[in-house]
Amino acid sequence: MSSQWLENTISFVDKFTELTGRTIAWLTFVMVILSFSIVVLRYGFNLGWVAMQESVLYFHGIVFMLGAAYTLKVDGHVRVDIFYQRFTKKQQAKVNLFGALFLLLPVCLTIFIISFDYVAISWEIMEKSSEAGGLPLVYINKSLLLLLTSTLFLQGLAEIGRNFLIITQEHTQETNNEEKI
Question: Crossing angle of helices 50-73/2-39, nearest 10°?
Fold first, then answer.
């Protein structure tokens, strides 16, 4: 029964991360169109706005900061595959489980703790761009640090659960097979 609860929780987190990933894909498309427009306006018509250029930086921040959890979900992160590729699925699950427990989650917590005051101060003063005509939303952009760590931590928990299930289900299958013999 607890296994079913864990599977449902993993499924919920995965759906949330998948929705985030699809949203980011569309935001990436908007960012490309916006970048193209900036270039055309700048070099074709000699027009330019700082706010428009800063918005591309904001889009980059959104794509990379919120895309980290989706990248983890689809196993698209960088990994040294020298030994990992030769491991069994159970061994890979153990590596992923320990990596998430002892590397990913502590790093997420550390970044969150270190960034919290930085973001809070920015919200307190409603920080704006230092550029004339820039966007008055710097505090929202800085909040992406907290969203990065939160979404990545959440997906990390889902990955821990998924790998735990792989390890324990294979153990259960091995035990069942031994009983049949």
Answer: 150
The CA distance from 55 to 175, in Å, is 57
pLDDT tens digits, one per residue of 91-107: 999 999 999 999 999 99
> Using one digit for the tens of pLDDT, what is the confidence trace for 129-147?
888 888 888 999 999 999 9
DSSP per position, 24-66 = HHHHHHHHHHHHHHHHIIIIIH----HHHHHHHHHHHHHHHHH
Pick the closest to residue 154 from 3, 4, 5, 9 (CA basis): 9
Q: CA 150 from chain center: how many Å?
A: 8
Distance CA 54, CA 125 (A): 20
